Amino acid sequence: MNFDFSMGIIWMLISITGVVIPLVGIFVLMGKEQSKSSTNLMIANIGCLIMNGAYFLLLRTGKPAEANMALKMEYLGNFLFYFFFIKFILSYMQIDVRHRWVRVFTHLWMLFEVAVIAVVWDDTRREEMFAHHDLEVDSQFGYHFFNMQGGIVYKVRYGFLLEFLLVLIAYMIIKRVHIRKQGGDEKHNLSHLIVAKFVIIIPLIMEIVFRFSFEFVPVFSSIAVLLIILSVVEGDIFSVLDIGRGWVIENFDSVFMIVDSTYGYLDANKFAKEQFEELADIHKGEKLSGRLIDLFLSEKTEMVIGERHYEKFIKELTVKDKVRGYCLIMLNVTKRYNMMEELKEAKLRAEEANESKSNFLSNMSHEIRTPMNAIVGMTEILLRSDLSDQDRGYLMNIKNSGASLLTIINDILDFSKIESGKLEIIEEEYEPMSMLSDLSMIFLNRIGDKPVELIFDIDRNLPNKLYGDALRIRQVIINIANNAIKFTAAGYVKLAIQMAPATEENMVNLNISIEDSGQGIKPEDLDKLFGSFQQVDTKKNRNKEGTGLGLAISKQLVETMGGQIGVRSEYGKGSEFYFHIPQRVIGDQVAAAVREDAVLHEPVVVSGHMKDGRTLAQLKKLTEGYGFRFVDCYEARSRKDKVDYFFVDEAVYRGIKDSIEEYFVSTGTELCVLQNPMREAVWDDQATVVNKPLYTLNFCQVINHETTAAFVETDNVMNFTAPQAQILIVDDNEMNLKVAKGLLQPLQMNIDTASSGKTALEMVQSKQYHIVFMDHMMPVMDGVETTQKMRALEDTYIQNMPIIALTANAVMGAREIFKEAGMNDFVAKPIELKDICSKIRAWLPHELIVKMSAPAQQQLQIPAQMLPVIEGLDVMEGIKNCGSLELFTNLLGDFYKLIDLKSTKIEKCLADGMIRDYTIEVHALKNTARMIGALELSEQFYQMEQCGNAGDVDTIFRETPAIMELYRSYKPILEPYGKANEQDKKEVPKEELVKVLEQLNAAMDSFDLDGADAALAELEEYRLPEELGPYMEELRAYVADVAMEEVMNTGNKMIEVLERITE
Description:
Layout: H1 5-30, H2 36-60, H3 64-92, H4 100-121, H5 123-130, E1 131-137, E2 144-150, H6 152-178, H7 185-209, H8 217-235, H9 237-247, E3 255-260, E4 265-268, H10 270-275, H11 290-297, E5 302-305, E6 308-319, E7 322-332, H12 334-382, H13 389-419, E8 428-430, H14 432-447, E9 452-458, E10 463-468, H15 470-486, E11 491-501, E12 507-516, H16 550-560, E13 564-570, E14 574-590, E15 605-609, H17 613-625, E16 629-630, H18 633-639, E17 645-649, H19 650-655, H20 657-663, E18 670-675, E19 688-691, H21 696-703, E20 720-721, E21 726-730, H22 734-744, E22 750-754, H23 757-766, E23 771-775, H24 783-791, H25 796-800, E24 803-807, H26 814-821, E25 825-828, H27 833-843, E26 850-851, H28 875-882, H29 885-911, H30 915-932, H31 935-950, H32 953-968, H33 970-983, H34 990-1005, H35 1009-1020, H36 1029-1040, H37 1044-1062
Parallel strand pairs: 9-11, 15-16, 15-17, 17-18, 18-19, 21-22, 21-23, 23-24, 24-25
Antiparallel strand pairs: 1-2, 3-4, 3-7, 5-6, 6-7, 8-10, 10-14, 11-12, 12-14, 13-14, 20-26
Helix pairs in contact: 1-2, 1-8, 2-3, 2-8, 3-4, 4-5, 6-7, 7-8, 12-13, 12-22, 13-16, 14-15, 15-16, 23-24, 28-29, 29-30, 29-32, 29-33, 29-36, 30-31, 31-32, 34-35, 34-37, 36-37
């Protein structure tokens, strides 16, 4: 075929353009966001560039070798162009190239193309297998071209490409027709791709059907590339689609959707199609449904669809500051939502548990301390009776163990408060000397008979009043000092309090240290000291009691109060714990000072003789600190110096009393005997007795002549009586009332009791009491409310009457509640004898207190002939168990009242097969029977308890009737004591009894068990007509069983009886 010159020039220009177009396309694509589609198109452009460049070289070269190389490069570019251009089309049309059969097809095609390239590059095989090429020269223009005869491989390859491209064009035309009524970039881009497909199909047809000296494939491929580049530049084919596709994760468990700027559908992941079924039928470029468009337009960021929870995000896809589309992300946060709900529920449960824990701690404090009150109180009462040394030792073990248990309970409660962050520091004014006085008694009691000297070294300038949490400071000192005493077998324990200036005005730093001569601490154990539940050197200290919480609590308390705590120790020699706490000074008065009028002459001469050298050194330090002169006692005697005050240790005084009095007392010296108030008291009219330890307060009291001789606190704290005192004890627990009365019996006071706040309110209006002991927690009207109502009465005496709280509640802020309610003081349960006696001595008018030369606890023994004879009872054993004859007879009355109730209940448990309840009942009666001396009955109940625990039902059914007969036989025997108790009760009008019974019925009707118990307790205080006796026994049983209808029916019957009696 011949070409003229103008046609040759045009063809050359077209070939050059075919090189320039893909080169421009490469640069355009390099400026775009990279994705799989853009990468495929980039490689197709490179293939087009190689193909057109090789063809241009073929047209220009005149050398066969260069023409042959150009041919090879042309086929290489041809492969790259077709293969990656088709991959680009597949990707753009969202045909899943990861599908198994698509991947197989792609891999086979690539292998085929690689094989073709290998054949083309081998000259021999190319001519045999692919096509025969003859290089010829155009005679007119001088251009070279290959006259080619295509072989079978050639025809197969181009035929496959043609068919495959025709199928793709058909698919794209269908898609284009489907979105023909909609606008948007997608329709524009799809049109460009269809035209580009037709462009590259035309040369394939021409290559197969016609034969030309010029090749059309390179030129037409560049035209196709031009069309695609136009779509890239104008339609942003990659900016919208590929950027979005790169931003989403196809298999992520969330909804991803991409649309163009007119909300035409572009892409969505499989989870979006699962969530929104309409996406399965929508085609690319088709406008979304209104529901889906609303997802893009809605401002809601959280939504629920079905059971799934989503968090929505919208991303604008912009190119050159123009919005080209939108990407919707709906993160599936169902798991997180469920987790948050679980966390909320767990948080709520934790808050409820924390509140329950607080309530539990409060209730536990009350519930544990209440029985502990009975244990400690009854033990104290029993210790007054005539006991063998062995029994007294057992009881002392019970008493000491009870005290230890209370310490552990307090530690655990405090630690629980610290853990929950609810431990509060309650600052108020306090007198440090008063705190030190209490601490000295606590420490001396703790030391007991150990050869350990207690030393106080207190700053002379300690203020009279400070502002801080005295209770917590006291607690820290006690925790540390108790450890010091516990681990010091012999030697000394020293408490030192010194003051240091603080940076703030009116503030001081209290530097407090506790030093001991105990076993010391190993260096490797020092870091363990302030840990929770930690004890050091556990092998050596395994016999030492304690929870290991004391120091951990102390550290938290000190740091909470703004201080620091530390320790110095040398193993085998002793330890020193020290801490400092800032405190505010109230006023300018010091706590202990020598009055000017007390110094009659100068110099005041002081001397002393002590068993312990440290106490003597402390005396010397105090003497010189106040400006007096200290002289050695032996030097004073040898020089016959006049000594104004002579201090002597009680142990020394007892040994050389006569010698001391011969010289010092006879010369006018004031003799001061230092004694341990926890041991046997010194009773001597010639001496001023001073309680150890010696420190600024009692030293100044001696100099100021403020001490009282011979009347000191001892372990026998009942060294006074008050026969004219009128005392009221209010408690809803009958056992607590008996314990309190029993404890205070040696004081010979007139004691009344009330089992409810209402009764107490009535009693204080009918009689003047010197002190009212008020239980804190009572049903219906508690101690706080009762006190408030008493203070509100228009009676000056009642408004100023001392009311002391009896509390087993260690809850925070209790002291403030008592003060706000109008209470004057409080006594903690279990009641400590020395505590309640000290409160009585503090609040009773002084004229009512009668001091004794011997403690009132040393009771006269009851002669055997004065003991009552009671059939079936070991009276001596009963009195021994109860602590006094009066308490014994009172308990007999209580035992009598319960016989019918308990026997009926036991028989009912047996009839109903409730063996566990039966066992509980006989267990309680076993102890009660033994308490009053009914030893045979107690043993029978014990045997039944054992059978119940062992599940021996046959023996229980066989033996119980006889035991119940024995139990009921005590009713006529004890009837005089039961009747005597009734005679002691208050007689009230019938109308008042009816009122109480109606309250009982109303309480049961509303299931107010506390109110029912209170009403029944009030009835128990009144003397009832004989006609109500049987009903009262039934009523007790029904209330105990919470039998609502039976209680109300019995109550109504009793009301009818009362109304009939009244008529």
